Amino acid sequence: MSKQPNFLIILADDLGFSDIGAFGSEISTPNLDKLAQNGLRQTGFHTASACSPTRSMLMSGTDNHLAGLGQMAETIARDPFYQGHKGYEGMLNDRVAALPEILSDAGYETIMSGKWHLGLPKHAQPHARGFQKVFGLLPGAGNHYLYEPFLEDNTPAMKFLPPLYVDGPEQISHKDIPGPFYSSTYFTDRMLGFLKERDTSKPFFAYLPYTAPHWPLQAPDEEIAKYKGRYDAGPEALRLERLQRLKQLGLISEDVTPHPIMSPYGYKSWDELNPEERAISAKKMEVYAAMVTVMDKEIGRVIKLLEDRGELENTFVFFSSDNGAEGALLEAIPVMGDQIKKTVEKFFDNSIGNIGRGNSWTYLGPHWGQAATAPSKMYKAWATEGGIRCPSIIHYPKIGGILKDNNAITHEFTTIMDILPTVLDLAGVQHPGEEFRGRKVHKPRGKSWAPWLSGKQKEVHDENAVHGWELFGQAAIRQGKWKAVWLPPPTGKDEWLLFDLEKDPGETHNLAKEHSEKLEQLVAFWHQYEAETGTIVNMSEPAVGGFGRSTGINWDDWGH
């Protein structure tokens, strides 16, 4: 058996900070909780604010604006402002060396099952970027039961969710996938198959990116039933419950000031909903919880296989989400706009008894989303902490150090860009530097966790390190405990805000006036970040997260 470590990287899709038991949730996730109990929980782990940019950072170890996803591919395809710029190819570009490419060249067996979202063309698909064995969903989401209505012209009714899959190097139709199909279960089945048939003389790198709990909200009836009535008190009550448990678990401070729930344009608060609307809203949360529980069960199957084969001890297991909880139909809006609601009404049955089944199509909405990201502000697509701070678990007791004790917790700042250098460091594999396979590539901006995890180094990123974020016109720049945030109208006031995250993780107290010199320094760092990464900002871009009125969507009675 290989002496080099194996790697299992598990990514949930749009999972909120407190959506698993180990992070204060009421949702049943015993398998992830066990990994956390025997591993390390990170409260300071950060991603991009949306799906594909985060995945590009994971695969490249560098900033999404350098790796090809400077903006969501769905936006780039329809906005000439971004087209033609380096770093805005809408796919993982050839100016980065992808992690599976590097590991393949180093003798690792590279395996993937799940969501790709890093490019549709053949040369950008997972097999072309280094995964030797792969089953993958190419776009940003898919029906969890493969229910795919088509129009008379034979194009998908849900145009932002074309049912495009790959099996190895071949692109296949959803009709080629054998049933019964449920996304989390099928992705796991394929991963288990790959692991069972692999060459055990080689170490493996396995990537398991689920599509749960991303919309459409769908789960088995029997799993949904377990949560019946659990969310009848509404999102604010749930938020308060979770905040209390986060405090009890030592994941947030007792005196934290959480950011209050914000209501986007067109959404009613829980108090404004009538009994029928409340019942529908609560049912959606029940389905969401069931999706998380099913995902956890499937993760448990993978961990058990590794245990049974005696491989878990030598496997670095990492779990997180790709961004904060979803509060709006992010990928859908650029493609279909106000046609979304009409299409759903025509092709799907969203009656309360049918919500959660394959022929239903619902999403969670901003209030439940904010319950999952508290104490942080807002959710996916926001440069505030609610969009970029995610739950994270590391299981690798073999390394000792801060992982030698059970139930370990760290509040250290880390980033998704750190995964690539960490994996390479633990594997004893050098990054190729500035040239790979005859092409120029970017060096990683992330840092290896290995010295920190083993106790040889007290931190990953020192207090002078600077980190930037930008998507959808929102921007942030951070150094140590200080973070500056730019929110354009109508989400903000076209000005830089300053927060001390050590004292104010909820970003509730703007210190721009009190610490103007620090803000000035951070803004200078922002301009440096823009220049280094080639970031371009479209200030006329429609607002995200449900706050923009430009989509023309009437959200009443649909997305509470």
Please give a handful of descriptors for the protein shown.
14% strand, metal ion binding, alpha/beta, 16 helices, 560 residues, Sulfatase N-terminal domain-containing protein
Q: How do you describe this structure in short?
A:
This protein is an alpha/beta fold. 28% of the residues lie in helices and 14% in strands. The chain has a single domain, classed as Alkaline Phosphatase, subunit A.
Description:
By secondary structure, the chain is an alpha/beta fold. The protein is built from 16 helices and 18 strands. The chain has a ten-stranded mixed beta sheet, with helices on both faces. Strands 15-16-17-18 form a four-stranded antiparallel beta sheet, covered by helices on one side. A hairpin with a 2-residue loop joins strand 13 and strand 14. Helix 6 packs parallel to helix 9 and helix 8 packs parallel to helix 12. The radius of gyration is 22 Å and the shape is globular. The termini are far apart. The C terminus is likely disordered.
Topology readout:
Layout: E1 6-12, H1 30-37, E2 40-42, E3 45-46, H2 51-60, H3 64-67, H4 73-76, H5 99-105, E4 109-115, E5 133-137, E6 164-167, E7 170-173, H6 183-196, E8 204-209, H7 221-225, H8 235-248, H9 275-308, E9 315-321, H10 333-336, H11 339-347, H12 366-373, H13 385-388, E10 392-395, E11 408-410, E12 414-415, H14 419-427, E13 435-436, E14 439-440, H15 450-453, E15 466-471, E16 474-479, E17 482-486, E18 496-500, H16 516-533
Parallel strand pairs: 1-8, 1-9, 2-11, 3-12, 4-5, 4-8
Antiparallel strand pairs: 2-10, 5-6, 6-7, 9-10, 13-14, 15-16, 16-17, 17-18
Helix pairs in contact: 6-9, 8-12
